[in-house]
Amino acid sequence: MEKEFFDSVIIGRGLAGLSSAIESKENKNTALFFLEKEKEPKANSFNAQGGIAAAINSNDSVEKHFNDTIKAGAGLCNQKIVKILVEKGKEKILELIDLGFEFDKENGVSFGLEAGHSEKRILHSKGDNIGRELTSFYLKLAKEKNIHFFPEKKLNELIIQKDSGKAVVFDDLLVEFNSLIFASGGYSSLYSKNTNKGKTKGEVNSIALKAGIELMDLEFEQFHPTTIKETNFLLSETLRGEGAFLVNDLNEKFMEKISGKDLATRDVVSVKVTEEIEKKRKVFLDCTKIKNFEERFPSIYLKLKEMKLNPELIEIEPAAHYSIGGIKIDLNSRTNLKNVFAAGECSCSGVHGANRLASNSLLEAVVFGSIAGKNAMQTKKNEKIKTEKINELIKTKNSFNSNFDFPLLQKLMWNYCGIKRNENELQKGLTKIKKMEKNNYTFLAEKIIESALNRKETRGTHFRTDFSEIKEKAEHTVIRK
Ligand SMILES: Cc1cc2nc3c(=O)[nH]c(=O)nc-3n(C[C@H](O)[C@H](O)[C@H](O)COP(=O)(O)OP(=O)(O)OC[C@H]3O[C@@H](n4cnc5c(N)ncnc54)[C@H](O)[C@@H]3O)c2cc1C
Questions:
Q1: In CATH, which of 3.50.50.60, 1.10.150.20, 1.10.10.10, 3.30.420.270 is domain 2-221+322-390?
Q2: What share of the chain has pLDDT > 90, as a percent?
Q3: pLDDT per residue over 414-435, tens digit each?
Q4: % helix, strand, coil for the chain, step of 5
Q5: Does 1.10.1040.10 match the CATH number of domain 397-471?
Q6: Which amino acids bring their CB within 6 angstroms of ligand 1?
Q7: Residue of 121, 266, 296, 459 marked catalytic
Q8: DSSP for residue 388
Q9: For residues 355 and 321, what is the distance between their CA atoms, to the nearest angstrom?
Q10: pLDDT per residue over 151-209, tens digit each?
Q11: Would you call 266 a catalytic residue per the annotation?
């Protein structure tokens, strides 16, 4: 196996990885590894549609953004981290505008509205293409730095030698490092219905846990209420922010009776849509009130045209969308392991609590990616790995056997650990998954279900039909090796 050394190693070329990478210093040797091909903009970050939230509108304030984030988080947000998100987030957006990034304008910057926001604060770019525009902009900034990009490299293992070296292992390459940043995205792909189009499947969380890194709040998976039925194609919440509403085939606007109506938070809307579907109703997103659909939502419009669907009335269903849980980090994006950091969707700082506020995740990737990158630059040298022991230490060459039935795992997760959960179904799912091949995907799935079983309450995205109450004391679920 080939061997290399870099001062700083980053796993992931989404917004969080790139935001870390641009903090790299001239005198540091930084390498960034990712699954996609060099010219393939497929990380989830490139697909974000709605926008990025920041309190820069003159009617708005970081306090209001803070309060909305805390409210959506259902008692589980880490307030210090939320403060960093909204304050640093605003600074970062202003910095981006100074650097020449163009948000859509209409007499100044134009702001959208999404669920759970008390103000119009969602900045968008080229209509519904914020992800593509913002991530490409960061990619350009990163390319100006002295960074080594390694496409099509799948992380398989993290080796930690006690009191000495650390290394990451890919199929044909072992890389020693002084600092490591995980920016490897979420695990929504573990569900058969999910909005994540890229190659990210969450195995890095298993790799981290097996190496002794703590994970947190895995049971909180955010489901998005509106995807085009049977396609997993997301219909951004901004559509509802601009006048679209949900209606069933009996022409009932079932969200009308609920607090927040069509712009109630995603946890609430996903459960309501699921209940309609359970009653054998069809659910539609009625977009007749949206002005300039084609111009404002060009990608969605194109998709509907391709599928020959009527953009005014679209049949929808919910799908897994964003992993709130992940690698536990502190205010400085540090994990519990020295010189190892995490940022973006793979991480869990408590910033989203039990339910992420819409459009806060691109902001999270930008803010905490940058914090991780800055801190990684400060780390001192590790000891060298003891090479004679390396072969012993490389345990998993490839965590994915080509015969492994991944769609079955996805189906089990959707059926037994989906939007509405209970002890009986969760146990059934766990038993079935335990009978499958042991790999990093089934390992993570088991940890998610175990976390869901242990949280005996309904809070945010974790909806238990057998424990409908919320506990007075909000507690995180921390998982250790
Ligand atoms: C369709 C869609 C629309 C969205 N819209 C919005 C929105 O409007 N606003 C908002 O705030 N959020 C939105 N989100 C969520 C947001 O896009 C993500 O949370 C965010 O982009 C995650 O960024 P990231 O850098 O953490 O991870 P990602 O962008 O997912 O990148 C992960 C990277 O890790 C790499 N990786 C993973 N595993 C491995 C491995 N084993 N070895 C090597 N590399 C690995 C991948 O190759 C990839 O490069 C949306 C998500 C989706 C799916």
A1: 3.50.50.60
A2: 88
A3: 999 999 999 999 999 999 999 9
A4: 35, 20, 45
A5: no
A6: 11-17, 33-36, 43-45, 47-52, 130-131, 153-155, 183-185, 195-196, 198-200, 203-204, 234, 322, 344-346, 359-362, 365
A7: 266
A8: G
A9: 12
A10: 999 999 999 877 667 899 998 899 999 999 999 999 999 999 999 988 999 999 999 99
A11: yes
